[in-house]
Amino acid sequence: MRVLARTYQGWRWSGILAATAVLTVIACQDGKVPTGERDLSRGSMVSRGVRAQEAEATIEVFAPENGDHVGQNGVGWFIDLAVEFETGDVAETGFTGSQLTGPGAHNNVAPLPGNDGLGADDKFSGLIVLVSTNTAGAGSCQNLADLFNLTGPTNITEDEVEIWDTWIIEGPYTGAHTRSTMWVAEADDLDGDGIFNDAPDVVNDSNGDGTCNEADLKAVGLASGVAEKRFFIN
């Protein structure tokens, strides 16, 4: 997984550096610094995720991509994402330990135990993941983060921590042969204890329309932007 993580990082930064080089050439031709160069240096134009101004956490979704046709009969597809925090203190991120888990006999067993179920993740308890076509629990308002199978840090420096999180969908409860939308965000430090560990098990349907989406997610209180992906589940 470490090799995969670094591969994604290489693609990401190669694209950013290439775009910056093009803008530098333009600047040399007209003598002006091109608009957006400062944002490029911070990775704000990365197409795979969301980078919110002044956010304390950044969400990047690697799979699914917008327009993808995923899985077979509703199962076997992946959600693969990373959350990058502007802190060097791992404890502040709400991450409490790596996990390799899954349903049935794989649930909460050595060597990297973690719970497999609905609601906030016991090992990464600030993450919120909603899927519009989900039928388990509270439907589109159900936080599915605890179903993620593989969680761990991919980068820890003095001022940044990145946590990678992956889920292979093993049941058809997110629908089959249907269009779907996913929203991902990091909950803010809602209780003021200095730790991003306050994701709800179920997001409140803030406008009472019977479904949850980006607006309801923002009403929770977030430390990040909202990453949205629209795709088709085969």
Structure description:
There is one protein chain. With 234 residues, this protein is α+β, with helices and mostly antiparallel strands. It has 2 domains: 1-46; 50-233, no CATH class. 18% of the residues lie in helices and 24% in strands. β1 and β2 form a beta hairpin.
Fold topology:
Layout: H1 2-30, H2 37-41, E1 49-50, E2 57-63, E3 69-70, E4 78-85, E5 99-100, E6 127-131, E7 150-156, E8 161-168, E9 178-186, H3 214-220, E10 227-233
Parallel strand pairs: 3-10
Antiparallel strand pairs: 1-2, 2-4, 4-8, 5-7, 6-9, 7-8, 9-10
DSSP helix count?
A: 3
What is the molecular shape?
Answer: globular
Specify the helix fraction band. Answer: 10-25%
Query: Sheet with the most strands?
Result: 6 strands, antiparallel
Rg computed from alpha carbons, rounded to a whole number of angstroms: 18 Å
Low-confidence stretches: 1-54
Number of strands: 10
The figure for the number of domains is: 2
Round the mean pLDDT to the nearest integer and report it: 82
Strand order of the largest sheet: 1-2-4-8-7-5
